[in-house]
# Entry
Amino acid sequence: MMKVRVKFFANVRDIVGSDEKVVTLPVDARASALLDELVAEFPAIGEWKPHLRIAVNWEYVPPDHSLQDNDEVAIIPPVSGG
Amino acid sequence: MMKVRVKFFANVRDIVGSDEKVVTLPVDARASALLDELVAEFPAIGEWKPHLRIAVNWEYVPPDHSLQDNDEVAIIPPVSGG
Amino acid sequence: MIKIVKVKINIEEVLDSVGDPSVGGTDVFIGTTRNHSHGKAILSIEYEAYEPMASKLLDGLETEAHRRWPLKKIMIVHRVGKVEIGEASVVIAVSSIHRKEAFEACRYLIDTLKKSVPIWKKEVFADGEEWVGAQEQ
Amino acid sequence: MIKIVKVKINIEEVLDSVGDPSVGGTDVFIGTTRNHSHGKAILSIEYEAYEPMASKLLDGLETEAHRRWPLKKIMIVHRVGKVEIGEASVVIAVSSIHRKEAFEACRYLIDTLKKSVPIWKKEVFADGEEWVGAQEQ
# Structure
């Protein structure tokens, strides 16, 4: 197993109730598997799922990206800066 | 006959040596006739002639515009504001 | 250069930072917080950034703009925290020898920032608050 | 609003003049005097305007921009007289609810100003001076 640190922002952080969480996953789990796990734990995220992007170590990654031990993963809701 | 006040700017004013001049013209003379007269008096304007525009009472006019007594006519060299 | 700041953005400083004796044209975009959203009165706005990633992406945007256009200097400043109505949330200044490139690059930078940089806006109303999603922009 | 001024342009004042609580985006173009022209060092610049006609045409440009785009406010300030290298000769600020219109209108205003408004620039070099014709821009 491996651990990744997951960061939450904006409406997703409000749902999770915390801005960070360490999640344990099988080695080489994909980004999409992490997201499925989070939706299972916090069903209210599900409604937003089609709009969420995932970043690993400060870079956007596709859903099939393989996570590594100690990665910093961020769940990125639709951005609204500017 | 009629009189118009002619204003000069930039390189044309440098050639004429004055920023204003009253010119006497036949009634209903066209803007192009005034320009021809100025070129006759100040041949160095001739070189610029294809690039000069004429304004009457603060509006650009075509060369065949008929001038009126007391008009304020301006010889407008290529502009370079901004 | 890029900055994420918690205090009011000083526009004169931003302009000074892109000044250069060879510059002929500078285009500046200033995004300000509006007092309404879909007809509802906004009391204030809060911005939040995923700062290390936002800085990295903004740095990347700056590099990409320099690659695409012959520019002199770029300054991008985004504010985070509470921003009063009418204050600037973002200022982007681009200087170049000729104006066309400054306009195009400035437009590219704000458009791309809004699509990709992890910064979020929360609108505070009299009866609650709401995170703004990009799809509602 | 439009202004032709003989003193240094105050950018903060220009920005204040286009501010409005419903504004979401403001685009500002700043034209500055360059230190070189076709490889020759420029010492200073002088601008001259046919003021009543320039004001009339700038007023007309402002009206036309409001007709073409849904804008909030426009401020066009052009300086005349001697302008030092690096100082602003022209500042155009356009505010609107959404940014696209502000960018387009600002670009239209500076492009049209440069083509049609009777203002002339004289570049002063170490060995003489020269009126700049539009064809050399």
Notes: Residues 31-41 of chain B form the longest helix (11 residues). The longest strand of chain B covers residues 2-8. Chains B and C do not touch (no CB pair under 8 Å). Strands of chain B lie at 2-8, 20-25, 53-56, 59-61, 72-76.
